[in-house]
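>> received
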Amino acid sequence: MKQLLIKSTLLVASFLLLTNGAFAQNVGIGIATPAMKLHVEGNAATDGIIVNNNAANGDPVVQFRLNNATAFTMGVDDSNADKFMIGHATINTNTRITIESGGNIGIRTTAPGNMLHMTNGGAAVGATSMANFENADAAGVALASRNSSTASGYNGFEGITDYNGTTYIPAGVFGLAIYNGPANAATIGVRGASNEWQGTGVRGSRYNGGGANTGWGGEFYDDLGYTGFLGTISDARTKKNIQPMQAALSMITQLRPVTYNYDTEKYPYLGLSTTEEFGFIAQEVQQVLPTVTRTKTLDTEACKEAGPNQIHQNKNQEFLVMDYVRLVPILTQGIKEQQVQIQELQQKADQAEALQTEVNQLRSELEELRKVVDKLSAGN
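>> returned
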């Protein structure tokens, strides 16, 4: 019986492969008009193809060859937790895609740690990105990221850079608005918004890890616009060693207000104002009020035209900056001290005026006495 089955199988195979002594163009299993060299078609829910390997460590695989050389192999790696892999030559050679039995999918990694985990796999990415989401339609976004669970306290999207050099200034998240239409169009590189009155649209912060205090919690170049309230924390609960200010006038008289223009030729990409300005020289203020000034780093090429897939060189320089708002309490105290002086002068002026009145009264009385004496001397 077994021999009869083998002969029948060979007979069917010969009929399928040979037509008038020549190889058939297409072979069909379950279909009379195969569209490919091998066309397998079923019409039941259980129909399919089985690739099986009964060996103890055998890998059931399917190979795709081009010019008799293996281009890709896909199958199950029995020696690696039964992962489904697509690789070059063999499933575990230059593996391109890995699907774990638990559902994690890896691209260029055989050990995906997330539901979708992609690495460069040692390949050079160059100046391009590892992934590109492009929407050429007139509507819709190219990429959306969202935590839809109301119980999840994690970020909807995270951009992280682990760069530890000093040559460049990488950003965890970089937003660029490219507009090719008419001039004066409103475009936004990065937009932050909160759909809640108690929320915050954009937050910038800086961890105090010690060292030189030259960084920023938030950094803006060129004009800065805002509406609403601009607040600086001043709550009594945040303060200690509170003492009344003294001798503000003496500090104010040492300050030198000036007019000036920024050197935009020396620093063309710092976003400096091009109009006449009024203010102080930070180095001079530092000699009088050192706590009003800070040494901070600024990117001297921050306002250069930016493009996608670009690295930004570190052109930071240290500059002396000052907080004009901190002068407000000093000026306020100076006004109060000056008012005290004015009141004291007014009191002295009032006293002088009263004394002058007395003097004038005495002069009048003396004049009357002189007249009486003159009359008595004349025998009247």
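>> The first helix runs from residue 2 to 17.
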